[in-house]
Amino acid sequence: MKYLDEFGNPELAHKLVDEIHAATTRPWAMMEVCGGQTHSIIRHGIDQLLPDGVEMIHGPGCPVCVTPLEIIDKALAIAAQPGVIFCSFGDMLRVPGSSQDLFAVKSAGADVRVVYSPLDALTIARDNPSRPVVFFGIGFETTAPANAMTVYQARRLGVPNFSLLVSHVLVPPAVAAIMESPRCRVQAFLAAGHVCSVMGTGEYPPLAAKYRVPIVVTGFEPLDILEGIRQTIVQLEAGEHEVRNAYPRAVRAEGNPAAMAMLDDVFEVTDRTWRGIGMIPRSGWRLAAKYREFDAEERFDVAGVRAAESPLCRSGEVLQGLLKPHQCEAFGKQCTPRSPLGATMVSSEGACAAYYAYRRLELVQL
Amino acid sequence: MTAGLDFENWTCPVPLRDTPTVVMGHGGGGAMSAELVEHLFLPAYGPAVQGDSAVVPVGAERIAFSTDSYVVKPMFFPGGSIGDLAVNGTVNDLAMSGATPLYLSVAFILQEGTPLAEIGRIAAAVGAAARAAGVRVVTGDTKVVDNGSGDGVYLNTAGVGLVAAGVDIGAHRAAAGDAVLISGDIGVHGVAVMSVREGLEFDTTVVSDSAPLHGLVAAMLGTGADIHTLRDPTRGGVAASLNEIARAGAVGVELAEPALPIPAAVADACSLLGLDPLQVANEGKLLAFVPSAEADTVLAAMRAHPHGAGARQIGTCVAEHPGMVVARTALGGTRVVNMPIGEQLPRIC
Fold first, then answer.
1. What distances in angstroms separate CA A142 from CA A113, A286, B302, one per listed residue?
2. Which residues, numbered 9 to 48 in chain A, qualify as contacts with chain B under a Cβ-Cβ cut-off of 8 Å?
3. How many domains are there within chain A?
4. In terms of CA atoms, which chain B residue is nearest residue A46?
5. Does the global pTM surpass 0.90?
């Protein structure tokens, strides 16, 4: 951890900030893809240190925020069934479904448990063989390998009472969708370092070439983010659009072959609806046919669950970088972390939550 | 590929308003707990003093009076148990009014089937903690609930103490210009308990800081300094306590983030679990607001006491942004330190 602390060293950070200022001659707008990066930027006040005109656009990379409402409603329906043990990452408990959240289902008597790893859910399933145990498997390419491993183990060990409610999403199709938007202002991307540590960087050169945008693989500590921004600005100023790796301590070009093989075995690509954004073709994973028996959507009768969203929240625009959180009329009024309108306000990685948590001071003073 | 996407009519879910039933967040010591008190309990009770303990006149004297219930899981954890928490928690609530704690009540709510040996260990811890704190347990109660209606053992303690003449300590006295002091490391108790919680077990060297703080408070008062506000940052941590003080005192608080005494083991655990150390519970620490001219004197007295050896200034009380706590980050940016909402939610990744 001391090693990690050094990536927050204020002196080195200010050196990088100086280099960014020296390299910048005009305004640029770049998107950090991952919600963890958004959180770190706001948490440490990194955007306050950048040259005027260099704008960080917050991307759709918060897994909690983009999990579709319909899946959350299905989770609520499954969790409420008698006997079910419903396991989830903690973040998901406060995400609103159509009419309630997992906290409310829990308070009504459902057995909802926060776990730190899907493998813990598998252990719970083995310890409770008479009860159906479901894990809520959401997230990007980062959380997918552990979920894949859990399903693989469930089949190998023969744990028939375990199933996965799966709604994985993939970064590269989202990058393409953002660039295809007619209102797109993004001129460069800080790619999500931990996604690339799993998947490698091979998917990005075609995107950089097609859309003529620099893509810099970036980490999460303050120095990582500043270095990602610095490399991006240098490319933008030079008129280049290459894929660069500013997070080499975690990311290899070929990714993690063992994880990728496991993902390839357990999942298959599918169309996926992103909450607030819409359907993006081939942008998600579902369980492959040979693992379909572990699919909670097959095991529980939730096919009839249909969800409709209300028009108040504009998190879709926030997720696409078209709107800053505080520019939404509901921000801090009808919509707070206490009473969230949209998932971007719920997750600690959500852009609205980050703004609400760390930026109210200047927003109040506006 | 975007033909099917609706870029102009983004939609989102209907808002979730307040829940009609109790949820865990109501007990988290954050905004939900505060709202429950403000909107449900206070209207029913009429005007009441808020704070860790109430100071009320009895004859010619003023007594501090407080009660607290303990539902910690697991009941035994590194550095302590529910028994010594129940004593030290109420002793500290009294001490935060500047009172000398004197007498406690202890009530046990037991679940049918709980081993008597376990109750014995807890009772022994209660007795030992009371003797160490110099307070007497003078009354008590025992109730048993059906197997499944409780969760092992719940404790309630209430306590009274005497407040010396001239002592006036409370959030209402926090004033711009005050130095904000902490008596030692932040987040220790919460991390110690989490490290042994079912489903979350991890190895750590951290042990609970559970301790009675009235001796430390007496040493601080002994300097003659005009101590404005004291608070022990338990549930909701330093973030909740400072936000409560900022709101009650209509002042702002500015923290210097690099000055926060967060032990590496606490920082590491919080980093892995996705928690903010400022929101993690403490059971043997106090926050003090004192006029800045007297800060060095008070700090010296704190450091000379065993429970204040790690005391330091972590911020200042300001007239700007009343009701709000702001931290200046190591990189020179600023961020708001929020009141926690309900329970802390571990992050997904």
1. 21, 15, 47
2. 10, 13-14, 36, 42-46, 48
3. 2
4. B333
5. no
Q: What is the pLDDT of residues B96-114, one digit of tens each?
A: 999 999 999 999 999 999 9
CB contact under 8 A, B332 and A93: no
Asked whether residue A295 falls in the same domain as residue A353, the answer is no
Contact list, B199 vs chain A (CB under 8 Å): 113-116, 120
- Rounded Cα distance, A340 and A346, in Å: 6
Q: Is A36 helix (H, G, I), strand (E, B) or coil?
A: helix
Residues of chain B with C-beta less than 8 angstroms from the C-beta of A210 = none
Assess A102–B contact: CB distance below 8 Å, yes or no.
no
Interface probe for A, chosen from B8, B10, B243, B334 (most Cβ of A below 10 Å), is B10
CB contact A350 to B (< 8 Å):
no
Query: Do A235 and A334 fall into the same domain?
Result: no
Strand pairing class (B80-81; B99-111): unpaired
Chains A, B: CB contacts within 8 A come to 210
Q: What is the DSSP track for A168-224?
A: EE-HHHHHHHHHHSTT----EEEEEHHHHHHH-STTHHHHHHHHT--EEEE-SSHHH
B181 Cβ partners below 8 Å, 6+ apart?
B287, B288, B289, B290, B295, B298, B299, B302, B311, B312, B313, B314
Nearest to B298 by CA among B250, B349, B230, B233: B230
Residues of B in contact with A357 (CB under 8 A): 335-336, 338
- H/E element, A3: helix A2-5
From B275's Cα to the closest Cα of chain A, the distance in A is: 10
Q: Does the interface ipTM go beyond 0.85?
A: no
Q: What is the mean pLDDT of chain A?
A: 89
Inform me whether the C-beta atom of residue A280 falls under 8 Å from chain B C-beta atoms.
yes
Q: What architecture (CATH level 2) is domain B52-163? A: 2-Layer Sandwich (3.30)
- In whole angstroms, what is the distance from residue B102 CA to residue B159 CA? 7
Q: What pLDDT is attached to residue A194?
A: 94
Residue A270 has pLDDT above 80, yes or no: yes
Question: Which residues on A lie below 8 Å from B18 (Cβ)?
Answer: 339
**Host domain of residue A71:** 1-311
- Strand pairing category for A133-139 and A54-61: unpaired
**Contact status, residue A351 vs residue A62, Cβ threshold 8 Å:** yes
Distance of CA A135 to the CA centre of its chain: 18
The string of DSSP letters for B286-322 reads -EEEEEGGGHHHHHHHHHTSGGGTT-EEEEEEESSST
Q: Are residues A196 and A344 in the same domain?
A: no
Cβ–Cβ < 8 Å for A269, A166: no
Placement of tokens 């091979």 in the chain:
A202
Give the span between the Cα atoms of B246 and A1, in whole angstroms.
33
Fold topology of B171-337: Phosphoribosyl-aminoimidazole Synthetase; Chain A, domain 2 (3.90.650)
In this prediction, the residues of chain B whose per-residue pLDDT falls under 70 are 1-19, 49-51, 198-199, 342-349
Amino acid at B168: D
